[in-house]
């Protein structure tokens, strides 16, 4: 409708992960993977910024400035980097898009949403607490849950380990599909971005499952 307010554009894209090299390939770093892919696509280079507690790049998408951020704190202090950056650049919560791993989605699934709970994700919990606000955008990258995947690992051990090859391929497919709609989201065209993302099935989803080995 013409009289409806336009959605806010995204001015800060945050990827969640743990900065230490030993965590680089772990499931908990899926948010980093998305930001790295997007930065590579647009030719941006993130550099360490001590005052923002992370790696940061300033780019222009269309006529709009966008900041890319990868916190260098531990995951449970991610909000420190997000709030420092948002305050300095005067960015509102609904102008922030946080990319993160999502236990409640299977590998290969990807979703965009505004606000909501944190589902126990320590990075999201800290961002929400420090912003005192839940109304920031999330790019949810499915990594699956150890219980639904039939694994004996506890959640902490699961997210801090590398995915199996088939899971990694599925996660990378989800990241590619998110990357393909980021430009729309950045422009504030969230409805179009979500329709395109959510109507795009994961790679191989249309193939009928092999029931021979089902229990």
Question: What is the compact description of this entry?
Answer:
33% of the residues lie in helices and 19% in strands. The chain is α/β, with parallel strands linked by helices. It has a seven-stranded mixed sheet with strand order 2-3-4-1-5-7-6, sandwiched between helices.
Number of domains: 1
CATH homologous superfamily grouping: Peptidyl-tRNA hydrolase
Largest sheet: 7 strands, mixed
Radius of gyration: 17 Å
CATH topology: Rossmann fold
| Number of strand elements | 7
List segments where confidence is low: pLDDT < 50 over at least 5 consecutive residues: 1-5, 206-215
CATH class: Alpha Beta
Total helices: the number is 6
Which outline best applies?
globular
Side-by-side strand order of the widest sheet: 2-3-4-1-5-7-6
In helices, the fraction of residues equals 25-40%
Task: Specify the CATH architecture.
Answer: 3-Layer(aba) Sandwich
Strand content: 15-25%
What's the end-to-end separation, in Å? 51 Å
SS-based class:
alpha/beta
